[in-house]
Amino acid sequence: QSYCHRLQHDMYFLTSTSRLNEQVVDKIVLQLNRVYPQILTNEEAEKFRNPKASLHTRLSDLLKHLQKKGDRHCQEFYRALQINAEQLFNDLPSRKILKTPDPTEIDTDKEQYMLNDRGPVFFLACFSVAAGLALFWYYCNSETQVIGRARRILGFSPIIIGRHVRNICMLYLEDVSRN
């Protein structure tokens, strides 16, 4: 949703009575006048800060003027509003719409916990099995002549590999060494 559409949606909320006082509107206009790139020229800033016009009229004219200028100008207005009236900024109707979760959207925090619910012990066990199989494959390759070393490594690894798996590996190593 573009900032211009959001501003159009929030216009009634912002212009309703006692939402923004004159000091806050003046601060926002001054910030829009002084920010780089300059959103309001000096003449426009004086027009929107004119104390002879009512606050409601000045604010309505300012919001309409910003909508005509484009999305970047509306975005800068929201930034100025957030800096000068943060509570009002958080209460905007468009902000409440943005905060409501989409039921079809995936919650990445929840997904992260679903993928990592096994903990570090599971990771270490998987890593140990993978490292053991890699060592076994490396030392049991027919091109290498170090089967005795593999037998010694597997013989001292009942913690990493279960006893039944270790026995099967040892039988395989003995069978390969006979051939």
From TrEMBL:
<dbReference type="GO" id="GO:0005789">
    <property type="term" value="C:endoplasmic reticulum membrane"/>
</dbReference>
<dbReference type="GO" id="GO:0042981">
    <property type="term" value="P:regulation of apoptotic process"/>
</dbReference>
<protein>
    <recommendedName>
        <fullName>Caspase recruitment domain-containing protein 19</fullName>
    </recommendedName>
</protein>
<dbReference type="InterPro" id="IPR043574">
    <property type="entry name" value="CARD19"/>
</dbReference>
<feature type="transmembrane region" description="Helical">
    <location>
        <begin position="121"/>
        <end position="139"/>
    </location>
</feature>
<dbReference type="InterPro" id="IPR001315">
    <property type="entry name" value="CARD"/>
</dbReference>
<keyword id="KW-0812">Transmembrane</keyword>
<keyword id="KW-0472">Membrane</keyword>
<dbReference type="InterPro" id="IPR042146">
    <property type="entry name" value="CARD_BinCARD"/>
</dbReference>
<dbReference type="Pfam" id="PF00619">
    <property type="entry name" value="CARD"/>
</dbReference>
<dbReference type="GO" id="GO:0031966">
    <property type="term" value="C:mitochondrial membrane"/>
</dbReference>
<dbReference type="InterPro" id="IPR011029">
    <property type="entry name" value="DEATH-like_dom_sf"/>
</dbReference>
<keyword id="KW-0496">Mitochondrion</keyword>
<keyword id="KW-0256">Endoplasmic reticulum</keyword>
<keyword id="KW-1133">Transmembrane helix</keyword>
<keyword id="KW-1015">Disulfide bond</keyword>
<feature type="domain" description="CARD">
    <location>
        <begin position="38"/>
        <end position="96"/>
    </location>
</feature>
<comment type="subunit">
    <text>Associates with BCL10 by CARD-CARD interaction.</text>
</comment>
